[in-house]
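chain below, 760 aa
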Amino acid sequence: MSMQSARIHISGIVQGVGFRPFVYNLATRLGLRGWVRNTSAGVDIEVDGEHDVLVAFIHAVRSEAPALSHIEELTSSFGGAHGFRSFEIIHSESLDSAFQPISPDVAVCDDCLRELFDPSDRRYHYPFINCTNCGPRFTIIKDIPYDRPQTTMAPFAMCQDCEREYTDPSNRRFHAQPVACPSCGPRVWLERQGTQRAAEADAIQQTRQLLAQGQIVAIKGLGGFHLACDATRAGPVAELRARKLRVDKPFALMMPDLETIERHCFVSRTERELLVSSARPIVLLRRKMESNIAEQVAPHQDWLGVMLPYTPLHYLLLEGADDFPQALVMTSGNLSEEPIATDNEEARQGLSSLADVFLMHDRDIHVRCDDSVVRVLEKEIYPLRRSRGYAPFPVKLPWEAPPLLAAGPELKNTFCITNRNYAFLSHHIGDLENYETLRSLEQGVEHFERLFRVRPEAIAYDLHPNYLATRYALERAARENLPAFGIQHHHAHIAACMAEHGLDGSQPVIGLSFDGTGYGEDGAIWGGEFLVADYRSYQRPFHLAYFPLPGGDASIRKPARTALALLWSLGLGWEGSLPPVVEFQEEERQLLRAQLEKRINTPMTSSLGRLFDAAAALAGVRQAVNYEGQAAIEFEALADPDEAGIYSFELEQDQVNVGSGIASLLGDVRAGIPASKISARFHNGLAEMIQTTIRKMNRDTGIRRVALSGGVWQNLTLIGRTLSLLRADGFTVYLHRQVPTNDGGLALGQAIIAASRLRG
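prediction:
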């Protein structure tokens, strides 16, 4: 048969995943000749061979591609043979304006783990072991194409042994860009007060000893520093809380293996799969009663956030020993609400008051990347924080979008950029409450725009005028003369849910956008919204009835204020024995009443999140909080799963009136009904109210598709009961599976709404 050539282009996650070595070995196996290379647009292949073999080659590229790859598109064309004499990997090519998705960071693979603990291997106990199937990706990449000079590994010149592996097509490290060994790669050391105390294996061993002794260690990891201590001892955990200024918010845990996790937590099949996946997220697991994890790790909660080791350094630290802790607290290395530290000197300055010692290394982190947090809902992933292991994997849009930037929200900030039919949602930035986090946002945007070759044609932002993300967006739009689109917070929530499910927006959905705070178009604080929405616009046929929020943020921090304000608005008395009443002195109550009557700094809210706060305070669960959602989380944790009673909430015109339900709740509180039953009846009543309202909206519109979005939907009790009722009525319900239901997914909705408006 006559020889032909095939020219192939592949786009998707095809760099940093061993794709060129895979193509090289496949072509060699089939006796083909030609070349493969990375470009800024993906992977290009040109190959000579007989037609049938070329067809088989193209089929195998799709069907046998590396597990970490994700082929979005493969195009091919045939022509005359070029007369290639061999097959080779040729130099990468940078193309103007071309871009491609980037692989997230990948947990260490089983092959590397075997070598890590093999005394005969030259990388025995080397904390930076990696190959084409695992290791750092997103956090070390400075630019594309993905080659070593474009990463933070550039300063480490490969030794002869590593070079031999890197150029050997039969080797697992063939063209593995972060390849390194003890002779030529990054190193670790232990330091105290700026002075090095030990290096390499001694540093790791001494770190283990210090952790076992109860000390707090700052550990430089993949996307930033962690603060670690023994999770089974109350003293170190309490000390870490005091230093970090983190009163009650749960700490994440790292345990050495699944067997250890199962001693402390209940683990389902789906949870097990998430724990061992290459993303290695923190997974929320229900705690077992017999667990000896210190109560201070997750106060007043029966869930623990647990992850497995994901770097070789973690495995070396957690290597089995009778005198070593079963679990380590592994929380972000930062002061409360500041960005996670990534640079060594930054860590020395910022974490010196938090950590007793530092375990450092000299591989730079180009992008800070916190651990991802997920839970399981109905045997599927339900993201709560999307960062390491998932970002910057894109969401595929239902149509091509103009290049634009969505600046995201104030809390749990992520931003989003679009290019063609990709939406690149960023890693977790955090709460934009200080200059340091704002700078992290700005740096992240600059990196994404360079990485994905985007010059925004427009910018989207949240309507709240005082958000730092909004100010950044408007200032940049003015500076660059770009159109700026203000996107209503709750509309963005619903659009994000629609986008990740690939809905094209041609038909509206019923959107249940429930959260704590979102700026409404009437200037009120929204958060209990029943919307009819597509990408271009929305209607608001129903919402939770407004009630006052005296002091705004002061009420958010102190649910007792919210509870008394709610009672005042409903005409219900402040009886002396109610928990939120006794929280205040008589003089304080008089001042609060005067504030309400005169409407001094008292915005109105329709927030379901704030209603949860009020209910929790009335039930005596919590009168003040020290992290977002704490009252609602602890209130939900008490709900009796066997309680069938309900508090009825009434639909009146365009509002949900909560008066009768709150009156029933008060009656139960006064009668001494347990908080577990009160919580269950409150949740049951909300689910029934949602069903009633959706039925009415369906009668009015004929719409049978429902999207659930907003932070309130992190409540498993409410979402479980709501799903059961809506599905029994035959509604199709969309939940978040790729991006968080909380504000961490909001930028995706901002982006697709702005894109829809730009498209006209």
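The mean pLDDT is 95. The chain has 23 helices and 29 strands.
thats it, cya
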